[in-house]
Fold these 3 entries.
Entry 1:
Amino acid sequence: MSDTPLYLGFEEAPTPFKGPTQKARIWTEHWVKARLFCPNCGASNINQFAGNRPVADFHCAACHEEYELKSQKGRFGPRVNDGAFRTMCERVTAANNPSLILMNYDPIRLSVTNLFFVPKHFFVREIIQERKPLAATARRAGWIGCNILLGEIPDAGKIFLVRNGEQTSKSLVLDQWAATRFLRDQGERGRSWLMEVMKCVDLIGRRDFTLDDVYAQEARLHALYPGNRNVRPKIRQQLQVLRDQGYIEFLGNGQYRLR
């Protein structure tokens, strides 16, 4: 496994487009194909699909992981525009649901400034937001798109390779990806609950925390799952799963530590 730093600059590949946004799309795609490794298995490169696929843009020939690339100049906010709502909802539970590659670039220096991954096991129906249908006057009248709610994904589901131009090692990215792969073995409902408890831990804001710290967010969880009348036992159950999977450590007497 190599931790050799990536070259973050774009090669100005020939493009038939004149607009800066269209040129940037070509250059960012070319950079991913030429420079980026697979964060799921560590293979040294990923391949680009032929155009016009409904969701995925890239795939790894070694492990068959699929990826969707989103790139823009400014930082990503709590929502990211995506494709057709129905297609995304169908893909959430599919084995080939793509993981996300989110890239920010500098249009002057023509280089990557931020890049992080969202593994597919963090995708549940709750983070896919339906948008309003396009107006009757639009070219695709009635078409319904979606947003991906990045703000609803736990911190562990946003794995940075490049942050403000500074790179993280490949080995750390692979370790962080592997640390949450256990979510793939959970059903969608199980993943949803685990992610919410992971977000509770994020909101506490400390590596060491207590069971009471998580209980303090009981009202938020009850609002999310109004049909569940046993939120505290459910919290304890999810903490046990996270402990068994090595995501957190149980220190005894209601004390936990985030690993």
Entry 2:
Amino acid sequence: MVIKIGMFATSSSLDSIKKESDFKYLKSKGFEIIETDNLRKKVGHTAGSIIERVDGIHDLLRNPEVDILMAYWGGANTNELLPFLDYSLFAKFNKPIIGFSDTSALLLAVNKLAKITTFLGPAGISFDKPDPFDYTFDYFKKMLIDKKEDCIIKDSEEYADDQYFLREDSDHRVKEKNVGRKVFRHGLANGEVVATNLQTLLVLAGTRFFPELKGKILFLEEEEGQDTSMIHRFFTHLSQVIDLSTLSAICIGRFASQSGFSENDSEEMIYEEVFRGLELPIIYNLDFGHTDPMFTIPIGGEAKIDTYNDILEIKQIKL
């Protein structure tokens, strides 16, 4: 049976990139792609009007041929769709929905209001870059195709965060050796998973779409366009929005080199300030977010963390 992926855009249009995407990698894996009518449409800085973007998602949910909904990428305006979505449709059809970055606003809202599992993981762009990582596809397949209940997360051997699209030889990626996950604070944790882009989570603060975080294991990622001062700002804001001590654990995705961390302005310096006094496991430099590759994280699933034995296990559960 051919699995059909419904490709949608909640914010930025596919028309904003130079080349025409043909989804070659996903098609080589046996998938068929069904595009929303607004995917390649551009109105101002978004992929169509609010209603066009909402209707595109609703149409994919109702379409019996569509098995999985995947965002092509993010942007900055997914949050404006949230009041207009019919959450009963998500609950009725309960199809896997996956993406990252700004799309996490949709993922969090659907998880909370439709009470279904959603997935922070690869988007269409993840497989549309040169030299797509099999690591990304393998974890996507384990979670959404094979529907494995338990998944042990291992670190990738290599990663890439190069701006290949700015080079003349843009047909390949510059890959670096991955040093693997790092532990800021050791500990043990079990809990329900919430996974999101950091600044997108903060955009939802004070709204009915903001997730319940008490007791949760929080996975956070941030985009490459934010420098160290802004990342520090976002983490500080988060610590003022919620009581971080009520979390079970914090897992942070790898930041891109464009963010500008250095020995004199490091991640650890930010964590020392923001996480001061917290007695819960904190892991960072994990394989998810705005660098490649990434593993897939079920929002509403469960995670087990044992930093002493280097264990990160994710379990998806049907809500």
Entry 3:
Amino acid sequence: MHRWLLYLLSFALAAAVALWLTPKMRDAALRFGIVDRPDGRLKTQREPVPYLGGVAIYLAFLLSISTTYALSADVLGILLAGSIVVLLGLLDDLGQLGPTTKLAGQCVAILVLVKSGLTIQLAFLPAPVALLLSVVWLLATTNAFNLIDVMDGLSAGTAAVAAAALLVVADWNGRTASAAMLASLAGACAGFLRYNLPPARIYMGDTGSLFLGMSLGALAMNNAYTEHNDLAALAPALILGVPLFDMLFVMHIRWRRGLPVMLGSPDHVALRLRSWRLTTAQTVLLSYVATAFLGAAAVGMSLVGLRAACVILAMIVLSALALATLLRRIDMRL
């Protein structure tokens, strides 16, 4: 019970700080002109919306975890790596960072995590393979949350729900530090959402999305899933499945069109759903529900035998392929 009191305290403190700090970041962004301006193509909001919400998320998380839990080596590694991507994101939000430099900075942050001992730990994988997969995984999660941040409330809310699912797994494995950090992340996102739900009064920008992706990727990796079957090693990919699916889907569509995969385009899952029949609020809520469902499925995979885990995974993969097929039929070309 005392562990859950710690998690509740971490969540509440982060949420309170984010609630207090986010409007201040909004005022600062407006004062210095750090805003996202409509361009009539991808940015379709009616008026400029300030950035710097990611700074509020990061500071709320930092203050919460530093006052509620001891700063062990892995905690410090995540905080330092998170600080690096926050600086990268801030520079990018200010328009001073190219994609190559941003990728290089992410690799530096990943090096920090690796030096802190945060890599994929699977007994059936050789160490070099585990290291390579760790790098690929962290790059994927970091950029997936960056790419999914295309709609009010989408990235922050999805991150909060995913953090809650990862918290359950972390506590189940006795990883109190990871669970407390996940509670703080969820709280910071919840406080920020007060001002980011449609219609958003502030955006998190790359500052927030890169931080959330890197932190959740590292915390998902710093867990145990394979006690009952080795296939459950895929559980983290299910928990973060909504942004990962969106990233892979968008990259596939752009590749099929002969476009650079990093070029901005309105091919995201959320934008296609909104263009189809759903409102912004309905699309965002559906993403939260999908993340909760995938989180429950991932926990289930970790608790059952290999045969049942195969059935769960097969159903999810087939559903994802069917969804991708339907989404491809929606014409989003500008």
